[in-house]
Write a structure and sequence with these properties.
The protein is mainly alpha-helical. Helices cover 54% and strands 4% of the residues. A three-stranded antiparallel beta sheet has the order 1-2-3. The protein starts with 8 loop residues before the first helix and ends in a 5-residue tail after the last helix.
Length: 299
């Protein structure tokens, strides 16, 4: 049974889009994962609406047997649970068979970050007398200053920048908006870039976008990745980095500087504090200093 042929397909995609606020690419990923379940049900001659907890346990076991990673299994289980919650909400089933279904535990992987000196080294490799270099320098300064996702950066509009109040309006996942403070340095870079940007005739559809390519269209995420890779190599940095590395570094440096974790959560646009904790590190020297300063036995 293929989700694309399922009578609930259209309603379910609408549910994921409008109720859950998921992007088209994420919805497509959910569909691919559900197709694995439907294929299993088809082979076992199980009706999805009559599937039991034991049936779903067998499906998860089959996923492990196929050799895919625990992280991939966890993602599939998440999609399956979402689908059955949808069926329950729409009264297609009387009880949710996935209520007790557990995904495999995944260890926390701390992200790679750049030091402040490494970021400064990358930013020093740009020739600001060249228009495109100024644009690219501004991109990296904005990424690091505000901790943006690359998709948020390439979709920034001129009206999103509030120069006087020194904050930007960011449209994140699920079209949720948040306000993020922006540094004086990044604001200066944006002002200078916007003066140069006037030399590029924008495509009508992208006239309000800040960062444009030579054809007057919005930059792609791939292009931002290429810019970072090029200038990291120029700076002699051998770490494997991406636009998200600047986001990780933003959060880590704020935490190391004493920022409140809840404030970092708000700036990153995370719904759960546990997600923010994945993005941040506490180095052992800082932890030791906190213990020495505050533990009663050390006073």
């Amino acid at each position: 049974m293929d989700l694309r042929e399922n009578e609930f397909q259209g309603k379910y995609r609408t549910y994921l889009s409008f109720e859950k606020g998921l992007s088209l690419s994420t919805i497509d990923a959910y569909q691919r994962d559900l197709d694995k379940m439907f294929l299993f049900f088809e082979k076992e001659k199980i009706s999805p609406c009559k599937a039991t907890y034991n049936d779903l346990q067998q499906f998860v076991a089959q996923l492990f047997d196929s050799g895919i990673t625990a992280r991939s299994v966890a993602r599939v289980v998440s999609g399956v649970k979402s689908f059955y919650r949808f069926l329950l909400i729409n009264k297609c089933i009387a009880a949710d068979p996935t209520e007790l279904l557990e995904a495999p535990r995944i260890g926390m992987k701390l992200p790679d970050v750049l030091s402040v000196n490494e970021i400064d080294a990358i930013l020093s490799t740009f020739d600001l007398s060249v228009q495109l270099e100024r644009r690219d320098h501004t991109i990296l300064e904005t990424l690091y200053s505000c901790g943006l996702r690359v998709s948020e950066l390439v979709n920034l509009k001129i009206s999103d920048i509030h120069f006087k109040e020194k904050y930007i309006k960011v449209t994140g996942k699920g079209s949720k908006q948040r306000f993020v403070p922006i540094s004086d340095r990044a604001l200066k870079e944006i002002r200078n870039y916007l003066k140069e940007k006037k030399k590029v005739e924008p495509d009508k559809a992208y006239s309000q976008h800040i960062f444009l390519n030579n054809r007057g269209r919005a930059l792609t995420r791939v292009r931002v990745f290429q810019i970072i890779k090029k200038h990291a190599e120029k700076a002699g940095i051998t770490k494997t980095i991406s636009p998200h590395t600047f986001r990780h570094s933003f959060a880590t440096h704020l935490l190391d500087g004493g920022a409140n974790l809840r404030a970092i959560q708000a700036m990153l646009g995370h719904e759960k504090i546990t997600t923010t904790e994945i993005y941040t590190h506490i180095d052992m020297r800082r932890l030791r200093r906190e213990i020495i300063e505050h533990h009663p036995r050390n006073k």
